[in-house]
Amino acid sequence: MSDRAAGRPESRGSARLSAVVWGLVGLIVLVVLWEGYKAFGPASGVQVFDTSILPRTDDRSMPHLLAMVQRALEPVNSSAGSQAVWVAVVAAALTSLGVAAVGWAIGSVVGFLLALLMQRLQVAERAVLPWLILSQTVPLIALAPVIVAWGGKIQIGAFSWDRWMSVAVIASYLAFFPVAVGALRGLQSPDTIHVELMHTYNAGWFKTLLRLRLPASVPFLLPALRLGAASAIVGTVVAEVSTGYKGGIGRMIIEFAQSGTSDPAKAYVPIAGAVILGLASAGLVALLGLALKRFNRQEASS
User: Fold this and answer.
1) CA triple 67-267-48, angle to 5 deg
2) Residues 6 or more apart from 77 whose CB is under 8 A from it?
3) Cβ neighbours of residue 302 closer than 8 Å, sequence gap 6 or more
4) What is the CATH architecture of 71-295?
5) How far is CA 172 from CA 72, 165, 182, in A?
6) Are the CB atoms for 178 and 93 separated by under 8 Å?
7) The pTM is what?
8) Count of alpha carbons within 13 angstroms of residue 243, beta-carbon side
9) CA-wise closest residue to 263 among 116, 67, 132
10) Run of H or E including 279
């Protein structure tokens, strides 16, 4: 047992290094595939039964990756004092990150409370879990106008519903599901013998939850929270487009895409920014693992 405990930090370091290496390999493969297809793919794209499955390879449809990087360093437009594209993308990404953080927090709390309910009452699990799964089949494009319309009717004294709140609610709608499922799995993970031991000590449900189930759920909960954070970013980007909320990276993608015919490389910069934002949000949530390190001795396999 001591040998395993002694070797565990080294194995964790190797796992982190392996994740970084494989991430870099994936990035290199993506660059090779993009530039390789652009160099050798047909100019008209690939079509199967009159259906286009791969894009055209002209500079308007697929600019070179180097052209995208160069465009990111240039001003947004030709007006005097225009900031660089990457600066505008970072500002928009931070705006979206703030809204997504609110949505992630709401979704995480709701998801965890639902997990507690389903763990406490078996009948609740049978009744609620199918509806949780069904909820994820509702398209956000159809949900966004409803939330905006309902939110616009909320007026309590000096408080009025702002459009960014609708975006946060939509983000929470995507974030709560992985948290609910992951937390439920974690809360149910303790072995029967450990639960019976708590009963032997005359520990009630709350003390068993606090002393046994919550610590045991950490290896399941942390990946769920990371997935929820990435889902919140996706929900925020889609909601910004659907609700018309301005200032975020989702609206910037649409605005830059409108100039795609004359400036195609510019349109891809906020898309790359949205991808990096999703990765960064999951990385920030992963920092929670440092605070919960003693409970996260071994991350559960999915």
Assistant:
1) 90
2) none
3) 223
4) Orthogonal Bundle (1.10)
5) 31, 10, 16
6) no
7) 0.82
8) 31
9) 67
10) helix 264-286
**Which tokens belong to 176?**
């709560």
Q: Residue 225: which residues within 8 A CB-CB, separation 6 or more?
A: 108, 179, 182, 285, 288
What the block records as the tokens of 114 is 């639902």
pLDDT at 260 over 70: no
Helix (H, G, I), strand (E, B), or coil: what is residue 48?
A: strand
Number of neighbouring beta carbons within 10 Å of residue 66: 10
185's tokens:
């799995």
Quick one: tokens of 262?
């004359």
Amino acid residing at 120:
R
Whole-number Å distance between alpha carbons of 255 and 270 = 10
Using left for φ > 0, alpha for ψ between -120 and 50, and beta otherwise, residue 301 falls in beta
Between CA 285 and CA 7 the distance in angstroms is 26
Cα-to-chain-centroid distance, residue 281: 7
Alpha carbon distances (Å) from 240 to 90, 124, 236: 16, 34, 6
Joined tokens for residue 120: 């406490």
| 145-176 pLDDT tens trace | 888 888 877 877 778 888 899 999 999 999 99
